[in-house]
Design a protein that fits this description.
The complex is a heterodimer of chains A (about 290) and B (about 230). Chain A folds into two domains: about 120 residues, Cytochrome Bc1 Complex, Chain D, domain 2 (Orthogonal Bundle), CATH 1.10.760.10; about 90 residues, Orthogonal Bundle (Cytochrome Bc1 Complex, Chain D, domain 2). Chain A has 14 helices and no strands. In chain A, helix 4 crosses helix 7. Chain B is mostly helical. Chain B has one domain: Transmembrane di-heme cytochromes, Chain C (Fumarate Reductase Cytochrome B subunit), CATH 1.20.950. Chain B has eight helices and no strands. Chain B is globular, with a radius of gyration of 20 Å. The chains are: A mainly alpha (about 290), B mainly alpha (about 230). Chains A and B meet through helix 1, helix 11, helix 13 and helix 14 of A and helix 1, helix 2, helix 4, helix 5 and helix 6 of B.
């Protein structure tokens, strides 16, 4: 058979397409099968402990002691899987909890159904998992320095474990005109919203938010950084609200459009070089 | 498997494979089709305002994305002072709006210039539409979800490296706003159609000009014009 025959070419394209389709499917399946179903305690320590205790009282969110008796099992599963959707659908219990806990919604932690099962198994019987083994949220090291916290927030001092500084996504009142980032929420009142110093401190330990987890799970704040940031947030939250000026987004649009106009003006300098072509000149002569 | 793996793991691999294999195939078996089939001879005035701004704007921004992928540490050091961060962000946004305006001019040009219609393929329109989605979602991200030049290093650098090293971690993209997800997905769509569209002309960037000896060009156009005769 000729090497360049259409039949051979068509078949090789089909074969290639099949391999391309099959390989990533295999990859994804392989990664998702690695999760063991008996990891409830580990998941709790990694993703829940920042906001919840088991028998230690309320933190950012409720104490989860006996939650499996308090709530309907299917409700619990649904809520742990997708709290954001539960809230959006106006579920009465979820709405009431939101109001009770300073309007801090529980983030969607993107847990797989198997992980939710593992968590519920652990919550049903924390002692079986060896509750004593769950270390209490590490307390920040001593008193923090608010000025150092601000430098950490805006990036002048680098985070020791290589994390991106807070200003990349968050703002706090009192930053320069253009403020901080807006991918994440404004953190000016974070201490008030997260139920005081204890709640905020415990969130700073593990940063259990889905957007942050991917990056910060392996680059946590050091205890000193946690203390400094907490001190900064406490200080920032206590400042009087600054005068409402032009929003950073408006500044961005204004400068961005202005910059584009300058670039067009630059192009205009080269416009005379764009002479009419010979044919255009001939045509215009009639 | 879920939507997130489908859109941000499986689809990227398919798109990238098709892009590489298709482009190599086309450059070997259809070498003379690697071109954008310029329409400059048919219309050149609107093209000047549209093409220059789109190309320079998008090229610099694309290089910025690439830089964030290859040198995240350097970018984080640059952004360590808020003033430098603001400068970079505003420059990027200005270039993005410049490119967006250029693209709008090019779309308007295709629509209104009758003599371009016979040489315009459906794929040309698709390229224009996908580029429009890309630039709009990009400008939207730059203004509404600041500061992309900084959080890129914490979200997309690890995500893209996870794809490149064959250990995909789509969980980086899952919690992001849909505008940013669309921006990412749209990029993979562009990769997918790359070898089948005029986008292939990107690989013909004339780097040879940097190395070849200089030439003298004597322009006669300015001296002898039809009017002068």
């Amino acid at each position: 058979m000729q090497l360049d025959s259409p039949v051979l070419r068509r078949w090789s394209i089909w074969l290639l397409a099949a391999v391309l389709l099959a390989a990533p499917v295999y990859l994804v399946r392989a990664t998702s099968l690695q999760q063991s179903s008996s990891e409830g305690q580990a998941i709790f320590a990694q993703k829940c402990q920042a906001c919840h205790t088991i028998g230690g009282g309320r933190l950012v969110g409720p104490d989860l002691q006996g939650v499996t008796q308090r709530r309907d099992l299917s409700w619990l599963k649904e809520f742990i899987s997708a709290p954001d959707q539960m809230l959006a659908s106006g579920d009465p219990i979820a709405t009431q909890l939101l109001a009770e806990y300073n309007n801090v919604p529980m983030p969607n932690l993107a847990l797989s159904p198997a992980e939710v099962e593992a968590l519920i198994a652990y919550l049903e019987n924390p002692a079986a998992g060896g509750a004593g083994n769950v270390p209490p949220s590490a307390a920040p090291a001593g008193p923090g320095d608010a000025a150092r916290g601000q430098a950490l927030f805006s990036g002048q001092i680098r985070l020791q474990n290589g994390g991106a500084s807070c200003i990349a996504c968050h703002s706090v009142a009192g930053l320069p005109t253009l403020g901080g980032g807006s991918l994440g929420p404004d953190l000016t009142q974070v201490v008030q919203r997260y139920g005081g110093e204890a709640g905020t401190a415990s969130v700073l330990v593990s940063l259990p938010f889905p957007t942050m987890q991917g990056f910060f799970a392996t680059r946590p704040f050091t205890p000193q950084e946690q203390a400094d940031l907490l001190a900064y947030f406490i200080w920032a939250g206590a400042q009087p609200a600054p005068q409402q000026t032009t929003s950073p987004a408006a500044w961005f649009w204004a400068v961005g459009i202005g910059g584009a106009l300058v670039l067009f003006a630059g192009m205009a300098l080269f416009w005379p070089r764009q002479r009419r072509s010979i044919s255009e000149q001939l045509r215009s002569m009639g | 498997m879920n939507w997130n793996s489908l859109l941000f793991v499986i689809f990227p691999y398919i798109a990238l494979s098709v892009c590489v294999i298709g482009s190599v195939y086309r450059s070997i078996y259809r070498p003379f089709t690697i071109s954008s089939l310029s329409s400059q001879l048919l219309e050149r005035r609107k093209l000047y305002w549209g093409s220059i701004s789109l190309h320079y704007g998008i090229l610099i921004i694309l290089l910025g994305h690439l830089l964030a992928l290859l040198l995240p540490r350097g970018l984080m050091l640059w952004n360590a002072a808020p003033v430098r961060l603001y400068l970079l962000e505003l420059t990027g946004l200005a270039l993005g709006i410049w490119a967006l305006a250029g693209l709008a001019i090019l779309i308007y040009r295709r629509f209104t210039t009758r003599r371009l219609w016979p040489v315009t393929t459906r794929m040309d329109w698709l390229v224009l539409i996908l580029l429009l989605v890309s630039v709009i979602t990009g400008v939207w991200t730059a203004t509404a979800y600041r500061f992309g030049s900084y959080w890129f290093t914490a979200v997309f650098t690890p995500y893209l490296w996870s794809l490149i090293t064959l250990q995909p971690r789509p969980e980086f993209v899952a919690p992001l706003p849909w505008v940013i997800q669309l921006h990412v997905f749209n990029f993979f769509l562009l990769l997918l159609i790359f070898p089948f569209s005029r986008l292939v002309h990107i690989v013909t960037y004339p780097l040879g000009y940097l190395l070849r000896p200089w030439q003298i060009v004597v322009a006669m156009r300015g001296r002898v014009t039809p009017q002068a005769q």
